[in-house]
Queue: 2 jobs
Job 1
Amino acid sequence: MKVSVLMSVYNGSAYLQESIDSILNQTFSDFEFVIIDDCSTDDTWSILTQNAERDQRIVLIRNTQNLGLTKSLNKGLNIVKHEYVARQDADDISLPQRLEREVSVLTQFPDCVMVSCHIQVILGNNKKVVEVMDRFCSPEQAAWYLLFYNRIGGHSQVMYRRKVVLELGGYSEAWPYTEDYELWCRLSNTKQKIIILPEILLTYRRHNQSISAQKVDEQQANRIRKVQLNIEYLTGEEITSEEAVILMNFWKSTLKIASGDAHHRFPSSHDAGLIHHKLTEIKCCFVREYKEAFGADLDHQIHEVISEQFLTWLQSPLTSKHTIWSKFQISRYVLLWSPLSILKGWLTWSFRFPFDTITSIYNKLQHSV
């Protein structure tokens, strides 16, 4: 047996049974399932004990006082027995092959410290998938993206090496509601690989009672602070919270750009210049720090990632908040990072609009001249 599945639950009776069943019905069946009840006041403990009676793989721990998620997870890390730890939240659903696929990756790649995957999203009790969080990228790119945002995208779909996490001190209690992202960043700093599989292995349930919904402001504040510290740790220079947000938006918003969710964050002329300047410096420091671990091609890889991101913004639709001049400013940096992409960017953007829209823009440009 190599796998321990770790769950902490507090008043999670609404979705708990479906989450437990998704683990018990995995194609990979040789695991222990450690579940910590964090002093729940609803029917959680009753549901847990009924499941433990029917399946001996379940190990129950009941906190005598509410410790919170981070302390409960650290408690669980010291209780579980096995090499690989798979996280599972009490409101999410693991697809049947999740554990099998993730065990395979950690076994095949000894230099991989954690494995994740794509995530599909549902709302409450509605089983209709409303979003797919496509997070696949190379391990090199994963380390880069984690500087700016939680590329992993969730907590309930990962499997990691317990020994490494314990050596790092487990989850940090100084980062409430962002303990997962903070840990992923420390794992990345070890220079071991984080592999994201290009397949959906988890159903993430959005609902009003989740921590992400109830603690959204505190969570975002901690994310911003973590980005600031990531950049300072890498470059030795501080950045402001405003600069951290601009960098976060540059990378994160375009994940949903096709759906329209990120259009209001189109980089202004000022922001585009700041992004270019900061990324030039950050890239140099990142390549110097990670080149030995990821290989001589790292500089080229990260250069391509940055140029593609500028190109993505160039190809995105305009919004009422920004003018055509913002497009030209983005074009300037597409030209600097990838000169051959500039024509592609403008043509892709142009063909998204009807002819009369393009003509109107052209006429306004002429009039301004």
Job 2
Amino acid sequence: MRWLAYEAVITQVTGDQETQTAEGTQTLQTIEVEITSGDRAGKTLTIQSNTIGDPNAPKFQTGDGVLIEIATGPDGQEQATIIEFIRSTPLYVLFFIFVAVTLLIARRRGLASLAGMAISFLITFQFVIPRILSGADPLLIAILAAAVIIPITFYLSHGLNRKTSAAIVGTLVSLVTTGILAVLFIQAAKLSGYGAEEATSLQQASADTLNIKGLLLAGIVIGLLGIFDDITVSQAAIVYQLKQASPAITFRELYARAMDIGRDHIASLVNTLVLVYAGAALPLLLLFTSGAVPFDQVINYEAVAEEIVRTLVASIGLILAVPITTLLTAFFVSGAPRPVRVSYPPPPPMPAGWRKS
């Protein structure tokens, strides 16, 4: 069986009926759509939408834009199904609001950061994804992409200076350390990478065999890039500000003072990261905790264990990034050559009666 997707608009909805069944409320809609894209543009189809026991199931209305899937069976019979609403318009509006707010508040820095974001997307879609789909090692590709993305985006957003260079070195060292930690614990927990349904669907849709476990590792590495930007640049800036305020400060004291501030940064970032991952996996957590399965059994399910490893590895990487970046930046600043002032003795007095010709 083969299938094709088309954009369409609903022109008429009839037979909006609800009946009670043993499985719950059954809603039946007869929907007429007009295809607006592809080789079938202008063609009209009638589709039956039938939902049972789902109070949150969408109800279609005249004028809604939808994506339909037309499947052709071995006997040549076609069956059309509505698979999604067309949501591109509100998404584009939201993106333009994001760009406008960034430029309005951050101005020139905001423009530079948007350029860095565009480059990151370009590298991801033109290099990372095609190489992974062609069978390359996802972790190696992610590290190579990070080695290109980090310097470009950091220098664009924060300027070409020693502070940014120190943050780049700290980020790369921290990223490699986190990658090694992720490899060790994904192996120890015997994670296959199939904890998410998307991984299974991707493997089935791909013509070649993909390294799904490597894809999990690559996702951890790429997901940390943006967070490392925040923490490493901040720590490097703190060290430089402390050194500028007190040029005579020793290396040991500079590191200690910067780490005192960095510990507050760690506390807020780790809490933020845990909440972000918990929010993203909330439906999954509710699914497992709503039953009678004990916690020590729930964490053995790969879907749960994968999120735990992802969250803890990322948090450890963030914590390590603070002392690594602080140490490297303090070394760069303390080891920077200082200008030497040379004092010359005053010239001897000229003989009496001497005049310059």
